[in-house]
Amino acid sequence: MASLSDVASDERTARMVLSMLVEPNDPVTGRILSRLGAVETLWLAERDGAVVGLSPVDAQV
From which domain of life does this come (predicted)? Predict the structure, then answer.
């Protein structure tokens, strides 16, 4: 089964998927999105691990 990040492999599609998964104006997602871009943000959202530069609580959110 393909993951969301496999299907949304370009910036525009990844942003559309994120818009369906995340509350509007979420500050944590916004910080990650501005640093890494939508494709990498979506990839991180699918994994359960540490995110460099974020506290463990923010990473879980």
Answer: Bacteria
Residues 6+ apart with CB under 8 A from 55: none
- C-alpha–C-alpha distance, residues 30 and 45, integer Å: 13
Tens of pLDDT, residue by residue over 34-48, are 988 999 888 888 877
pTM, entire model: 0.73
- The torsion angle over the Cα atoms of residues 31, 34, 35 and 38, rounded to 10 degrees, is 110
Cβ of 24: how many Cβ atoms within 10 Å?
Answer: 7
Query: How many domains is the chain built from?
Result: 1
- Cα 35 from Cα 41, distance rounded (Å): 9
